[in-house]
Amino acid sequence: MSNIDRFAAEALELNNICYAYEGSTALDSISMKIRKGEAVAFMGPNGSGKSTLLKIINGLIFPDSGSYFFCGDEVTEKKMKDSVYAKSLHKRIGFIFQNSDAQLFNTTVYDEIAFGPRQMGMDEEAAGKRTDDCISMLGIEHLRERSPYHLSGGEKHKVAIASVLALNPELLVLDEPMIGLDPRSQRWLVDFLAQMNEAGKTIITSTHNLDLVQEVSDRTILFGEDHKILADSKTADILGNQPLLVNANLVDEYYHMHHDNGHVHFHDHE
Fold it and tell me: N or C: which end of the chain has fewer CB within 10 A?
């Protein structure tokens, strides 16, 4: 049985996490606490370690040193070898990959969304009800019998999200979810994440999108090129700190923000 505490105040806690790929540092002494119900963004330049940290949070890889707690219980490689424990964690943490193709493998959209509930041992009636509810929630009834491989990028994102939501996770983790989406699909996703957060879900979004980050998070954790945390503060405060963003190599000196409406602008100068 899992020791995960459903009443813990923190959704997760990371203490001095370090990780390296073949001797090359990806994460260096990363520590943070994220409370249940928070909407948090991970920001930083490419290669700063954000995606690596998301994989650790989802139990796909394990730190070289340091500790990771989900709802009060330490997640370790040894525990994740227990299929019951691993199923429990993956039911409670929904991970949406940057590339939707990486998590879509069934022949129809319906079977894709039903896969998780079936794997978790739901009978077919309960799994069907959960699947139908998710299809309705995301407005993809017209895709029900379609092959996921032949959908547009935005449609694939919706199916991937529905397949994760079918497990009713407490924590949603999204890796660069705006990449490849047209403006209408981006707007849909922003609104959807806000609804999920209002419903009590904890949201972690890794993103480079400075235009939309303030709409998907109240707090931002900024990673630097040295694979450490540069800042952890309110999203509006970080977006308004141009020297910090320049130091993180996210913007140049021509960046500015309209504080009255939260719009970010970039200017190309000769």
Answer: C
Amino acid identity at 37:
G
CB 234 within 8 Å of CB 219: yes
Burial class (CB in 10 A: 0-12, 13-18, 19+), 163: buried
Task: Please report, for the chain, the start and end positions of each structural domain, with discontinuous segments joined by +.
Answer: 10-30+46-208
CA–CA separation, 204 vs 193, rounded Å?
10
Residue ranges in the chain modelled with pLDDT below 50: 1-4, 259-270
What is 10-30+46-208's CATH number? 3.40.50.300
Helix (H, G, I), strand (E, B) or coil at 227: coil
Interstrand relation of 65-70 and 10-21 (parallel, antiparallel or unpaired):
antiparallel
Phi, psi angles (nearest 5°) of residue 52:
-60, -45
Residues in the chain: 270
- Spatial separation of the C-alpha atoms in residues 120 and 247, rounded to whole Å: 45
Q: Which of 33, 34, 65 is nearest to 170 (CA)?
A: 34
Q: Which residue has the tokens 């190599």?
A: 249
Yes or no: say if 151 and 201 are a contact pair by the CB < 8 Å rule. Answer: no
- Give me the amino acid identity at 77: E
What is the pairing mode between strands 10-21 and 24-35?
Answer: antiparallel
Helix (H, G, I), strand (E, B) or coil at 184: helix
Three-state helix/strand/coil letters over 53-76? HHHHHCCCCCCCEEEEEECCEECC
